Amino acid sequence: MKEGQKKEIFSEIPLDENISREFLHSMKDFNEKNFELTVSNLPVLKDCKTMIDIGGALGVLALKVKTSYPEMHCITYDLPYVAAYAKEYLEKEGFLNKIEMNFGNFFKDEWPKTDITFMGNILHDWDYEKKVFLLKKSYERLNDGGIFVCIETFIDEKREKPNEALNVSITMIVECTGYNMTPSEFDKLAKGVGFKKTEYFNNGVEFCIAIK
User: Of the chain's two ends, which shows fewer C-beta atoms within 10 Å, N or C?
Assistant: First the structure.
């Protein structure tokens, strides 16, 4: 499938208010528990002062972090069309004035530098070159010693076990040229752009971290 077809998939969502709302709230329902578990499995958060969630949609992950670490400056970042929906959701949850909303295109625009950067089910949307681009940009936008967190399902190293990651990867390949990785593939990509160390976690939720 050509790259241009991928752009059509994502460009159609902002054009219809009902589709936008349904998509963003379905992502909230799909990710909310995993985000909560990620925060509880990341004690290093206690040493961070700032965080940003790239592709943050309604701001669910930023809300989870802010709930557990009230003193942290939390930022959610997504495309401009998401702003109205994120504001509505955060206001309903009582977090509108507690979380910074920042909007732009993560391929074209800069985002604030922070101690920790999250991407939840973002990297698996993209092909190899764009994965490298996003990891490199994330590395550059982290403070010294900062941490990148990739929350998604990972394929087992031998590619022998049928699991959710393989099913999702097939869907990503067919629909938008993306794919899921093994932890070692993530390690290679992360270290290739400058990260010193990576670690894979699987305790009720899967994610990898990369340390600058």
Answer: N
**Residue 18 forms beta bridges with which residues?**
none
Q: What is the largest CA-CA distance in the chain?
A: 47
What are the structural domain ranges in the chain? 3-211
- Would you say 122 and 176 are in contact if contact means Cβ atoms under 8 Å apart? no
DSSP 32-82: HHHHHHHHHT-GGGGG-SEEEEET-TTTHHHHHHHHH-TTSEEEEEE-GGG
Distance from C-alpha of 84 to C-alpha of 96, rounded to nearest angstrom: 12
Between the CA atoms of 134, 90, 80 and 22, what dihedral angle is there, to the nearest 10 degrees? Answer: 90
| Residue 30, SS3 per DSSP | helix
Q: Are 118 and 144 in contact (CB under 8 A)?
A: no
DSSP structural state of residue 151: E
CA–CA distance, 34 with 17 (Å, rounded to integer): 26
Give yes or no for residue 7 having a pLDDT over 50. Answer: no
DSSP state of 181: -
Looking at 3.40.640.10, 3.90.1150.10, 1.20.140.20, 3.40.50.150, the CATH number of the domain 3-211 comes to 3.40.50.150
Whole-number pLDDT of residue 180: 84
CA 14 – CA 185 distance, rounded (Å):
32
18-38 pLDDT, tens digit per residue, is 666 777 877 777 788 999 999
